[in-house]
Amino acid sequence: MTVATNHPFAQRLARVPDSRLLQADQPTGAPLICMPEVEEQTEHYLAIEHGDSADRGMLTGALGGGVGIACFIMGILAYADRDTEWVIYNLLISLAAIILPFIWEVLRPMPLPILLNRRTRELYFEQDDELYHTPWDDVAAAAYAYGTVGPYTAGMRHAALEVLLHRFGHPEEQVLINLGSPIGKSLEMQLGFWEYLRAYMDNGPWFDEHGQHSDSPQFSQSLQEVRNSKGQSVRLYWRLIKDQYRANQGRNFLSYTDFMLLLGSMLLLPVRTLQNFTYAIAKRRSRSQWPQMIRERLRADGPTSRLVDLEREQGLI
Predict the structure, then answer these.
(1) Average pLDDT of the chain, as a whole number
(2) Distance between CA 54 and CA 49 in Å, rounded?
(3) What is the H or E stretch that residue 207 is in?
(4) Whole-angstrom distance, CA of residue 123 vs CA of residue 133
(5) In the chain, is it the N or the C terminus that has fewer CB atoms within a 10 Å radius of its CB?
(6) pLDDT score of 242 more than 80
């Protein structure tokens, strides 16, 4: 464990052996890792999923891609039998299974992501209509491992990556947040993600495997494949089958497992497609929920003053 007596987490994690105190200007030495919670990375900001936003679109995908597609196929069969009444029924049910959950999920408020702003070098977070923030250069963070034991599962290890923020205009009110879900992650993974965020803030938006600035987005985008591959399982399994075909020179290349994985991914393709589309629309709509001072700081031509500077001008800190 890294010891820093002036670190806000020092006393809290003093007796946690698998932990690291983190600061923006101190490298951990871990290789860069991008987590699937990174939903968007641009030249000016990086957004990390928060709360239950990752599940947005799942209902539309399940109903629209399952019930809707099934009713659509049944409608085609009814049309072949010239049963006009059943065609209409199935078409209406299919449309309702897609449109109704889509409208509900898009209009329902979506938890805003955690934002890292490269232009102002800040981190933003919104909770219960209250804005929290911290300057990146003074950020206090920590990564630590812990275990859980369930009644039906053996012991499992997880690791959290937490940062400390304070409420805008009320520096005495602080909140501790996780940068993504800690479930199923190791301490090494979280340290690698911290290095990824450091590389983005200091040398981004694109960088190489050492975290140094790069004019090419190739390496950064390769790390983001863990996110971009969501819903692309058909392409993945098809590529694996083609690789095996070439390796075996066209002989005995298709295993039962590969075939079933490809077939299952094809059957789930409508579900994934509708889920991803619903998520994209809901995400775009939710961006308008950020306060005006945040939205303007995310623009390329927006102000570069930090929120902490505004608080100092007002004599709040």
Answers:
(1) 84
(2) 7
(3) none
(4) 5
(5) C
(6) no
Q: Are 200 and 41 in contact (CB under 8 A)?
A: yes
Q: What is the DSSP letter of 290?
A: S
In the chain, domain spans: 1-47+115-228, 57-109+269-297, 230-267
The answer to whether 115 and 124 have CB atoms below 8 angstroms apart is yes
* Rg of the chain over all Cα atoms, to the nearest angstrom: 24
Backbone angles phi, psi at 98, to 5 degrees: -95, -50
Please state whether beta strands 170-178 and 156-167 pair in parallel, antiparallel, or not at all (unpaired): antiparallel
Both tokens of residue 186?
């190791």
- Closest residue by Cα to residue 118 from 53, 47, 212, 223: 47
**Rounded distance between C-alpha atoms, residue 1 and residue 187, angstroms:** 11
pTM score of the predicted model: 0.79
Least confident of 64-68, 181-185, 188-192: 64-68
Nearest 5°: phi and psi at 124? -115, 150
In the block, residue with structure tokens 């995908």: 61
| Closest of 211, 217, 203 to residue 118, by C-alpha | 203
Tell me the CB-side half-sphere exposure of residue 15, using CA atoms within 13 A. Answer: 0
* Residue 200 near residue 207, CB atoms below 8 Å: yes
CA 162 – CA 242 distance, rounded (Å): 42
Whether cis (ω within 30° of 0) applies to the bond prior to 217 is no
- The per-residue pLDDT for 26 is 92
Amino acid identity of 247? A
